[in-house]
Recover the amino acids of this structure.
């Protein structure tokens, strides 16, 4: 009869993966499918949280950008993909990032120079004549007004329409729902692919570690354990991203720490398995030794019984021989004591 596998809930696996390295082999027996589903669930949960945090940050930045336009520009018009302002070059710094407006006639080289220019803030939005440049950390995107507004069937607008359009969308649920959905999908795909590649690298390191430890573990089991070993690094990574997004706090060698933590978790689990194997071998040797001793005692007991039986048989034979000898002696004695007959007297 096969032993039934008890599946552990995903939320409980997060805690076990962080605090109970010795439970990795047990969770690995659930199979590759469940390990991958656990990883997808973990990344999805954090992708949704990240999307929500970035939504709050960018919505706040958009609100400040709208206020900036309202207070600093008296005339704003858009027509046929071109943005025109009464003041062509202004900038401001907010709690969320930098906002720069430059509607001068710029060449492609000048636009690229703006894209490549390093900002002191993590977020920077640059409004140009025909497009808007959005910078976040190392990522830079160029979005053309015409391509964006055609989806909304907007060909022209002025300052009043911009303010009203922004306020209507920022006060309604649509922009938040769209941002959450798009952001969650974006973060999920990006971080799942990255984390899966990290798991593959970690599993190869795990196979090398098993060879060094002198134990044999199938690659499938090592891969599953690698999924759980990367949990702590993933949790710390998402916490760091959120803290960095809102505070700008930066850890220089975080990527190195991310990799080292997952390696340590997997190595600890492998050497715990080796320790269990050694303990099981010692217990098995003790059982074998005890059984061997029991067999020797049983054999000695059987030999004693055989010797006892042989001795009893010999005693019986000796007694029988003595009885026979005694009987013969009695018969001889009886013959000697018998008186001679009459014929003998004559």
């Amino acid at each position: 009869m096969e032993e039934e596998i008890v599946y552990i809930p995903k939320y409980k696996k997060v805690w076990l993966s962080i605090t109970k390295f010795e439970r990795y082999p047990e969770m690995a027996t659930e199979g590759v499918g469940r390990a991958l589903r656990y990883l997808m669930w973990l990344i999805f949960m954090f992708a949704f949280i990240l999307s929500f945090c970035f939504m709050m940050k960018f919505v706040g930045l958009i609100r400040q950008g709208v206020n900036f336009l309202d207070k600093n520009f008296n005339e704003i018009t858009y027509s046929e993909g071109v943005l025109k302002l009464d003041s062509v070059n202004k900038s401001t710094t907010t709690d969320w990032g930098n906002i720069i407006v430059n509607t001068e006639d710029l060449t492609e080289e000048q636009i690229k120079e703006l894209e490549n220019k390093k900002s002191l803030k993590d977020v920077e939005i640059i409004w140009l004549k025909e497009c808007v440049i959005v910078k976040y950390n190392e990522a830079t995107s160029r979005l053309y007004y015409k391509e964006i507004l055609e989806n909304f069937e907007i060909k022209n607008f002025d300052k009043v329409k911009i303010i009203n359009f922004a306020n209507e969308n920022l006060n309604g649920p649509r922009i938040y729902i769209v941002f959450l959905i798009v952001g969650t999908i974006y973060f999920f795909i990006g971080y799942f692919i990255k984390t899966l590649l990290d798991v593959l690298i970690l599993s190869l390191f795990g196979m090398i570690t098993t060879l060094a430890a002198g134990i044999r573990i199938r690659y499938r089991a090592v891969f599953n354990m690698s999924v759980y070993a990367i949990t702590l690094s993933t949790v710390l990574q998402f916490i760091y991203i959120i803290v960095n997004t809102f505070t700008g706090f930066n850890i220089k060698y975080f990527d190195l720490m991310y990799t080292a933590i997952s390696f340590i978790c997997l190595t600890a689990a492998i050497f715990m398995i080796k320790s269990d194997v050694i303990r099981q071998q010692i217990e098995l040797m003790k059982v074998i030794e005890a059984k061997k001793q029991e067999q020797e005692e049983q054999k000695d007991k059987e030999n004693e019984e055989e010797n006892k039986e042989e001795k009893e048989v010999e005693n019986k034979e000796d007694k029988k021989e003595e009885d026979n000898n005694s009987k013969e002696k009695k018969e001889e004695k009886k013959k000697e004591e018998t008186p001679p007959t009459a014929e003998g007297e004559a």
